[in-house]
Amino acid sequence: MQDTVEATMEPYVSATVIFPEQYMGQMFELCTAHRGEIQNHTFIDESRVMLKCRLPTAEVVTDFFDKLKSKSQGFASFDYEEAGYDASDLVKMEVLLNGEPVDALAAVMHRKSVVTVGRDMAKRLKEVIRRQLFDIIIQTAANGKVVARETVKQLRKNVTAKCYGGDVSRKMKLLNKQKEGKKRMKKFGKVELPQEAFLSVMTKQDE
Q1: Average pLDDT of 23-39?
Q2: Environment class of residue 193 by beta-carbon count within 10 Å: exposed (0-12), middle (13-18) or buried (19+)?
Q3: Where would I find the H helices in 42-113?
Q4: CA nearest neighbour of 204 among 104, 9, 70, 49
Q5: pLDDT tens, 69-92?
Q6: CB of 187 closer than 8 Å to CB of 135
Q7: Above 70 in pLDDT, residue 108?
Q8: Are 108 and 62 in contact (CB under 8 A)?
Q9: How far apart are CA 63 and CA 60, in angstroms?
Q10: Residue 89's closest CA among 7, 181, 179?
Q11: I want to staple 185 with a disulfide (CB 3.0 to 4.6 A). Which of 10, 50, 116, 134 is the partner?
């Protein structure tokens, strides 16, 4: 008997945001951009607004608070409490380096975010992964389909630098040897990931 998934559930929080009135537009945009459901807003005095909304917990634990402070120039306050689970259309985003999945970089996200986040993630990883002696193919994929692809080009080592004169056969021999070596490295080599690679997937691209 084959197991079937009837629904995937995602934890939510009830959030309260208090901010000066002039930042109302930015706060509304921030909440909706993070899949928030705005419930109500009220003026607590002549210049301050209190916004109530429900947000997926996954949206809060990334960079929501940093963006909140940035968009309000530090004047907004944020508080939240657990608010149960809701059914959500979630998928697993995988990161593959030269065809090998990197479990530590995998993430679960809403389906509508897959393309945007996948492309952004591939670009971020390309910026932080150091070049090596073989090409590094970066791919993000979901449901067996590749969403984005970037390539970190290989470093080229000049193996003929010490070959002076017209010794063409020796140069060709060294270049062929280098080519074969690169094939082996690409097949068996392990891509080294700096700490920045893991930090880069914890933040979202600005909307």
Answers
A1: 91
A2: middle
A3: 57-59, 65-71
A4: 70
A5: 999 998 999 999 998 998 888 888
A6: no
A7: yes
A8: no
A9: 7
A10: 7
A11: 134
Q: Which amino acid is at 196?
A: E
CA distance 143 to 91: 7
pLDDT of residue 186: 39
Q: At 164, give phi and psi (nearest 5°).
A: -95, 160
Instruction: Please compute the mean of the pLDDT values over residues 7-22 and round it to a whole number.
Output: 91
DSSP secondary structure letter of residue 80? E
At position 129, the amino acid (one-letter code) is: I
d(CA 119, CA 127): 13
Residue 111 DSSP symbol = G
**Rounded to whole angstroms, how far apart are CA atoms 26 and 19?**
10
Q: Which long-range contacts (CB under 8 A, 24 or more apart) does 79-84 make?
A: 79/15, 79/16, 80/13, 80/14, 80/15, 80/16, 80/55, 81/13, 81/14, 82/11, 82/12, 82/13, 82/14, 82/57, 83/12, 83/13, 83/14, 83/54, 84/11, 84/12
Quick one: which of 21, 113, 20 has its CA closest to 62? 113
Tens of pLDDT, residue by residue over 129-174, are 888 778 889 999 988 889 899 998 887 655 455 555 555 666 666 6
Q: Which two tokens stand for residue 43?
A: 């003026």
